[in-house]
Write a structure and sequence with these properties.
Helix content is 40%, strand content 13%. With 362 residues, the chain is α/β, with parallel strands linked by helices. Pfam families: PRISE.
Length: 362
């Protein structure tokens, strides 16, 4: 059973974390499908056609209550998270953001479904215990039990579950892998980070060196296209088959970085090097590259000269530095009726072209 979304204004969605890579994507998709769409963020700094910006501090219940008083959404998609120094702080802060948003919406009684975005740390453990302890065999399945580590993903889920029980709405949880996407003003995006890295390599005449582990270079893996993720979030919010279930979300194909890396290098017209005995992280190697990027921006008329707003070296180092195999099973989602997929190389190069068209990279 699906819910029609063809009549403009019939349905209303709230996207929490609307300035992020997924928030921008799913907000745009809701609006394009005729939903009355609201985007909640602290800064309200990104304008998306058809999305009404709402500004509030997710950690300030009074601010949220005032900002959301008249929104009355049918569907809430939660994509926001805040990075903290310890997992205890991650749990305290990120569970509070979910709890505060849902509490601010309780009085209206409008919410029918809440879709929560998490990720593979559900299976791999939090930053402090990443990849340690007992882990599921790959590919990861949604039926795997929680690990015996405190994890802010689990805390966020529990806030959704508790509110759903009190208020009678349905929920879905979406466990994404590394995301390839197009978004402005958001650096936590491997597609953009690698594009910026390749552009710097070309300017400086340096090889495009794989920064990660031997395992990530050689093992099979997968990634998640942001547009595909948005499609699944909306599907789960409009189909009874997805109610009260967690779902993995990845492109549906698998690859090895040793296969994709030369393709990226060829696309940018640069030489490449693979894993050569040790990891060579981007965060240390790209330190001090701000001036080089500023010159590239000036030479090519780019809209952003601040390297820190484009590339997240630590985030990409974390994804490519894993020493275990990471890929997910998509059977559950397919059996429930979500059959969409992406080709990973096509996904990556689509995002590169969109960043070029937006004059973010040359």
């Amino acid at each position: 059973m699906s819910i029609s979304t063809t009549s403009a204004g019939t349905h209303r969605a709230l996207v929490v974390g609307s300035t992020g890579i997924v928030g921008q994507t799913v907000g745009r998709q809701f609006a394009e499908q005729g939903w009355e769409t609201f985007g909640l963020s602290r800064s309200a700094s990104v304008d998306i056609p058809g999305v009404t910006n709402v500004s509030a501090d997710l950690l300030d219940p009074e601010s949220l209550a005032a900002a959301l008083a008249d929104v009355n959404p049918e569907v809430v998609v939660i994509t926001a998270w805040m990075r903290n120094d310890t997992e205890a702080e991650n749990i305290r802060v990120n569970s509070a953001t979910v709890r505060n948003v849902l509490a601010a919406l309780e009085a209206s009684g409008s919410v029918r479904h809440v879709a929560l975005l998490t990720g593979l740390k559900h299976y791999l453990g939090p930053f402090e215990s990443y990849g340690t302890g007992v882990m599921a065999d790959t590919p990861f399945h949604e039926s795997e039990p929680r690990l015996d580590f405190p994890n802010f993903y689990y805390a966020q889920e529990d806030e959704v579950f508790a509110s759903a029980e009190r208020n009678g709405f349905t929920w879905s949880v979406h466990r994404a892998h590394t995301i390839f996407g197009f978004a402005t003003g958001n650096a936590m995006n491997m597609a953009l980070t690698l594009s910026v890295y390749a552009t710097l390599c070309k300017k400086l005449g340096q090889p495009f060196i794989f920064p990660g582990s031997e395992e990530q270079w050689n093992f099979v893996t997968d990634v998640t296209d942001a547009d595909l993720l948005g499609e699944q979030l909306i599907w789960a919010s409009t189909h009874a088959e997805a109610e009260n279930e967690p779902f993995n979300i990845a492109n549906g194909d698998v690859f090895r970085w040793r296969w994709l890396w030369p393709q990226i290098a060829a696309h940018f017209g640069i030489e490449w090097e693979g894993f050569a005995g040790e990891m060579r992280p981007l965060e240390s190697r790209m330190a001090g590259m701000e001036q080089a990027w500023s010159e590239i921006a000036t030479e090519n008329g780019l809209v952003e000269s601040d390297l820190g707003r484009l590339a997240s070296w630590w985030h990409t180092d974390g994804d490519l530095g894993r020493t275990i195999e990471c890929l997910t099973d998509m059977t559950k989602s397919r059996e429930a009726g979500f059959l969409n997929f992406r080709s990973t190389p096509a996904s990556f190069f689509d995002k590169v072209q969109r960043y070029r068209d937006a004059h973010i990279i040359p």
